[in-house]
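Hi, can you check this record?
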Amino acid sequence: MSLGFRAVLGVLLLLLGIAGFFAFAAGFADYPVVPPSPKEKAWIRGAYHVHTTRSDGNGTPAKVAAAAKAAGLDFVVLTDHNDLKPPTATWMDGVLLIPGVELSTSAGHLAAFGMQRPLQDVKPWGPSEQAVAAVEAAGGTAVLAHPVQKKNPWTDEATAHQVPGFELYSADTFFRQALRSPVSRLLPALGASLINPVHGVMLLVAPEPEPTARFLELARERPRLALCAHDAHGLPAYEAVFSALDMEFPPELLSGRLSQDAREAAAQVTKALASTQALCVFRALGAPEGFALEGYDAQTREAPVGTVLTVRLPEHLPGTVEVRVWGDGRLAPDGQHIELTGPGVVQVEVWAHAPGRFFGHEWRPWLVPSPVRVVPRAPGI
């Protein structure tokens, strides 16, 4: 056996040993961090930005529906690459599959959903302004997909200001970030996935400042829609990603059961998803029932300078949850009120003390609403 071969074998055995350690630790990871409240009404839940075998995903729509059902989801928005003629909305295995698309443009990737008419005058890798206009003309909602990701970031400034949606957190981006830190991030996640696949996905969740900074910059102009994107391709497994995070609708936004007519149900979901009232939830950490952000105008998602927002938190154990604030707002000592110091924009998120890579804990995002614009106070007030 050559010296070089033995060295490579030694490194592989070392990596396997490290992965085995993280797999062992994953057996002690306790989810959810915040226990469910049986007193609260359940929210409608679903996955946004999912790929199937119609493009580069490794699962058929039927496989995706089965994974969504196992994860407890009500709907999935399918966004296969440049799928300009996707199947119509359908109920499959009790899950609503909603057609959408991820368009490749000269400036990056543009996700879109809720189109009422077919997309016209758009082609793969065509001008970004043409794709944005086509989505708007079709009555859909456009979203900047992974806009600051190292691979395929959004590069056109003019259209960035026109598009209402922004993927603030992306599971695929987390995975790609981990690839750049194979020992400290990727290996722990892979090891944990052997025992606890959802914990493996959650170990990838390590937000970086660039997406938030870019999002707040764009959100100063007008209300913006913050989305958490699965960008799921089947690796990590669909069910694990669907169980880790989702988009959810509070009862006051969409109450009761979805229509059994697939087209009507798809219209219900896409309208709610585009409303800025939907909530991104890292569901592995707990259910959002009982959460509310209060004090702003729900129609405009704006509030004047000096307003105090209130964060209503689900029941939780002390020390397991905290409110974090970015932009033109200041968190009060009680941890649940935010004074708006603008004008500008404020992003309010709830983070949870989640199981970490070893046997400790790390803070991770849990509940992520869209931002609130802070406008000047009217004269004389």
